[in-house]
Amino acid sequence: MTSLERLNARLEGKPADKIPNMNIVMAVVAKAAGVSYKEYVTDYRKLVEGNLICAEKYGLDSVSVISDPMREAAAFGSSVTFPENGVPYAEKPLVGDNFDLSVLKRFDPEESERTLDRLKGVELLRQKVKNDYPVIGWVEGCMAEAADLRGINELMMDLASEEDYLDDFFSVIHEQQKCFALAQLKAGADFIGVGNAAASLVGPDLYRKYGFKWDKAIVDFVHENGGRVKLHICGNISSLLETLKEVAPDILDIDWMVDFSQAVNMFKGTKTAVSGNMDPVEVMMRGTVRQVEEAVRHCIEAGTDTTLIAGGCEIPAATPEENFLVMDRILYR
């Protein structure tokens, strides 16, 4: 089976020759391509090259344009710094304490340098892999993007205070989120990954009020336009799982600090496949081959016929090759 056939079958609960290997890799991709992290996030050709190497070498069952959270922020007008070997970041929040949303540029994804680079990455991946691998596009979730534009500490205070500007803020972000997602679907993406890490920092009540509506809206929008969604909220989302059942992404990533058996059981019988959830640092990077094998088998045993296997979040660049390889070997039936 091809990786795309394998994933499609698994999501439908049908037999597959292997449980899909859905590890998230970014720094590993840069390392495989032999470039700095800065070059990886600014040159789609290197991103694609590294993805193809990693998929072949480590048995990954998807290729992705995930790279950093500053694509949309730059398009909105943030001044972004690019460390040579670190993740890009905004030099200062674009939205200040006066809550002036007029500073947010409304952008065409094909005309902003950083969003266009991602679109070109999707196009080239689709061209290279044809129908052998699922291509995963990527957008920031509304809460995560708000944190990028406002500052994470400032946003948390605003959420706790239930500031009046928040609904308008999220609405502006969501409109651009839809444009960017649609452009990636048209470029050839099968899935849109939605990264919304900031959501793990709030409780179920605040998520229900400020996060749920927008995560549900982007899932529905992607579905309406022929794509599928992989929702990634790293961190401890145990208290959000019940609400996330209503969001109904096709894949929900489960980080290592969440009880995987609990997550699997909660989503049993739904249209959402859970993916996880080895500790990417203590198990995948620092663990022995035996520890990796035990952790992977634990996830398999906890799973159902739709469960996917991956580290709970990004696999670090220093992860030993043998740990990648033993994981992938175990996933074959």
Radius of gyration: 19 Å
CATH topology: TIM Barrel
* CATH architecture assignment name: Alpha-Beta Barrel
Number of domains: 1
Helix percentage range: 40-55%
N/C terminus separation: 12 Å
Q: Strand content of the residues, in percent?
A: 5-15%
Mean pLDDT comes to 97
Task: Write down the secondary-structure element order.
Answer: HHHHEHEEHEHHHEHEHEHEHHEH
How many extended strands? 9
Class of secondary structure makeup: alpha/beta
Question: How many helical stretches?
Answer: 15
Explained architecture:
This protein has about 325 residues and is an alpha/beta fold. The chain has one domain (about 5-330): TIM Barrel. The protein has helices spanning about 5-10, 25-35, 35-40, 45-60, 70-75, 115-130, 140-150, 150-160, 165-185, 205-225, 240-245, 260-265, 280-285, 290-300, 320-330, and strands at about 65, 80, 90, 135-140, 190-195, 230, 250-255, 275-280, 310. It has a 7-stranded parallel beta sheet with strand order 1-4-5-6-7-8-9. Strand 2 and strand 3 form a beta hairpin. Helix 6 (about 115-130) runs parallel beside helix 9. The model has no long low-confidence stretch (mean pLDDT about 95).
